[in-house]
Amino acid sequence: MTKYRSGRINEELKKELSDIIRNSIKDPRMTSMISITDVNVTRDLRYAKVYVSIFGDEESKNNSLEILKSSRGFMRKELAHRVNLRYTPELIIEEDNAIEHGMYIDSLIEKIKDEK
């Protein structure tokens, strides 16, 4: 039962954080496309680990990640207004390279197919 509830909370936070990043953060330095791939909330709802995938060159990735990390307080405040939870979790933002790694593996497979 608790896994079902935590899954719903994870998905709701993921949806709301995506909307906050897309519509509420107005930093002109954020030029790359940002996608939230996963959100994991601890059992006590005190912390939420947010995995983001950032598309762009290396410099814009680093800038966007720093902007997201510096705007954690703003995102937490907006999240508290949008989601009714007993505790609004503290956000821990980490970069997720799974999509880029998957594209790299796919290119290797395509290269092997072309060699045959």
From TrEMBL:
One MF annotation (Gene Ontology) recorded for this entry: ribosomal small subunit binding
Gene Ontology biological process terms in this record: maturation of SSU-rRNA
Origin: domain of life: Bacteria
Cellular component GO terms, alphabetical: cytosol
Keywords: Cytoplasm, Ribosome biogenesis
Location relative to the cell: Cytoplasm
InterPro entries in the record: KH_dom-like_a/b, RbfA, RbfA_dom_sf, Ribosome-bd_factorA_CS
Presence of the UniProt keyword Nucleotide-binding in the record: no
Assembly, per entry: Monomer. Binds 30S ribosomal subunits, but not 50S ribosomal subunits or 70S ribosomes.
Function: One of several proteins that assist in the late maturation steps of the functional core of the 30S ribosomal subunit. Associates with free 30S ribosomal subunits (but not with 30S subunits that are part of 70S ribosomes or polysomes). Required for efficient processing of 16S rRNA. May interact with the 5'-terminal helix region of 16S rRNA.
Family according to the record: Belongs to the RbfA family.
Name under which the protein is recorded: Ribosome-binding factor A
Source species: Clostridium cadaveris
Gene label: rbfA
